[in-house]
Write a structure and sequence with these properties.
This protein is mainly alpha-helical. The chain contains 10 helices and no strands. The chain is globular and about 55 Å long.
Length: about 290
């Protein structure tokens, strides 16, 4: 007896997130276990996807409702974890920027409560959808969850644009992290739209249904965007260096600054030695009177 389309998608998820779990653990340990380490959040994401897909396979073969319900609930949790990973990356980018050119760190802290609310509503909505005759009530929770996540993506986009404008004040290795965040945000938008479609679709929809979704649509709008984002972030984690908080040690070297000539730099930072800059003379520059 062959596998159903749902089982094939679950197998693909397990085949992808199995190796991704071990790579995530390696990358997270390499960059340190702290809040600014966005790779740390890829570990629970991989675990959630592996467990959810495994339960989906079991539910399909045994026709047990409990496993199917748990798998549906877990599928609604992973997106918020992935957004939390991007929040962690923006925290790292902001910490690495010079103190005069970074945004208020409290903006990052403001993401915590909405993310917790989104996780709670997603789980509660999934539980209600699993109950007979209560699917519409669960959809209302998914509507609110989707709107919250959409607002968070908009805020992350604004902070990413700000960081991109001030990328001259970042260490060169952080440039790629800003670019990765900028690329991942529109990809995650597709995943958020899928959540909104589940929330606003008819309760008897055969395309956007949490418990019995169209597998092709789910693969394109749910699984594929997550695969793309996780792959980019893991590859970046393998080549990126450990975070360096240049905000505490003063302005960056001249060779790390774009569109900033030696005279302007010396005038702004008269006490900053520049002898170690590759393209500058070995004497310490003094501001012109």
């Amino acid at each position: 007896m062959g596998l159903t389309s749902g089982e094939i998608l679950d197998v693909i998820n397990i085949a992808y997130y199995g190796p991704a779990l071990f790579i995530s653990i390696f990358v997270a340990s390499r960059h340190g276990f702290r809040r600014s380490n966005g790779w740390l959040y890829l570990v629970p994401l991989a675990l959630v996807r592996i467990v959810g897909s495994s339960l989906g396979i079991v539910a399909t073969s045994t026709h047990k409702k409990t496993e199917s319900e748990i798998a549906a609930i877990l599928s609604s949790v992973g997106l918020t974890v992935l957004i939390q990973a991007l929040v962690g990356f923006l925290r790292r980018i902001n910490e690495g920027c010079h103190k005069d050119h970074r945004f208020n760190p409290r903006f990052i802290d403001l993401f915590t409560i909405p993310l917790i609310v989104a996780i709670g509503l997603g789980i509660d909505g999934g539980i209600q959808m699993s109950k007979a005759g209560d699917y519409s009530s669960g959809q209302d929770k998914f509507k609110i969850t989707g709107i919250i996540l959409l607002a968070l993506l908009a805020a992350l986009t604004a902070l990413t644009i700000f960081s991109s404008i001030n990328r001259s004040w970042l260490p060169p290795n952080e440039f790629r992290l800003v670019g990765a965040c900028a690329f991942c945000l529109p990809v995650l938008l597709v995943r958020v739209v899928y959540v909104l479609c589940i929330g606003f679709a008819d309760s008897d929809s055969t395309t956007f249904n949490l418990l019995a979704p169209d597998v092709t649509v789910e693969g394109i709008m749910s699984s594929a965007p997550e695969f793309i984002v996780v792959t980019i972030l893991l590859l970046l984690g393998l080549v990126a260096t450990r975070a360096r908080n240049v905000a505490k040690v003063g302005p960056p070297p001249i060779y790390e600054m774009e569109r900033q000539d030696q005279r302007t730099f010396s005038a702004q930072y008269p006490s900053q030695p520049i002898a170690w800059a590759p393209s500058v003379a070995t004497s310490t520059a003094q501001p012109q009177q």
